[in-house]
């Protein structure tokens, strides 16, 4: 299994921005589609965004379209999530994951996640 380490979360006011990063351990990173999911307190984990192995195609949840951008750097084995115009409802722990089916099928292994808190 690929090891994933998320970073970049924090506390931000409504309307602010954060950039999350996820570092992968495997050199085969460029062969995986990758995704970001999030889990708010008391809720199930939900899909946020996905990117194909080449980075040419992306997919977003309706709730984040136009505000979030997923990208990847295969040379550095990283995938990022730029989050703009943040809202209190974006508050959650964010996880990156390897996808085994496009665009929602996580392999099922998760890192420790990174906490994003948006204050109103």
Description:
With 120 residues, this protein is mainly β. The protein is 0% helix and 51% strand. It contains no helices and 11 strands. The strands form 2 sheets. Strands 2, 4, 5, 6, 9, 10 and 11 form a 7-stranded mixed sheet that branches. β7 and β8 form a beta hairpin. It starts with a strand and ends with a strand. The mean pLDDT is 95.
Task: Note the main attributes of this structure.
120 residues, mainly beta, 4-stranded antiparallel sheet
Which helices and strands occur, and which strands form pairs?
Blueprint: E1 4-7, E2 10-13, E3 18-24, E4 33-39, E5 46-51, E6 58-60, E7 68-73, E8 78-83, E9 92-101, E10 105-106, E11 114-119
Question: What's the total number of strands?
Answer: 11
Low-confidence stretches: none
Mind telling me the C-alpha Rg?
A: 13 Å
Q: Structural class of the secondary structure composition?
A: mainly beta
DSSP helix count? Answer: 0
What is the H-and-E element order? Answer: EEEEEEEEEEE
- Main beta sheet: strand number and arrangement? 7 strands, mixed
Intertermini distance:
38 Å
Shape, per Cα inertia axes:
globular
Helix content: under 10%
Question: Roughly what is the average pLDDT, rounded to an integer?
Answer: 95
What is the beta-strand fraction?
over 45%
């Amino acid at each position: 299994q690929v090891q994933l380490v998320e970073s970049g979360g924090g506390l931000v006011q409504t309307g602010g921005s954060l950039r999350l990063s996820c570092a992968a351990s495997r050199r085969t990173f460029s062969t995986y589609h990758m995704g970001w999911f999030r889990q708010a307190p008391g809720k199930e984990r939900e899909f946020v965004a996905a990117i194909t192995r080449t980075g040419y195609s992306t997919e977003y949840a309706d709730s984040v379209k136009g505000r979030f951008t997923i990208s990847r750097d295969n040379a550095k084995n990283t995938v990022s999530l730029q989050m703009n115009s943040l809202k209190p409802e974006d508050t959650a722990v964010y996880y990156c994951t390897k996808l085994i089916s496009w665009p929602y099928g996580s392999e099922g292994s998760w890192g420790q996640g990174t906490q994003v808190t948006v204050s109103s």
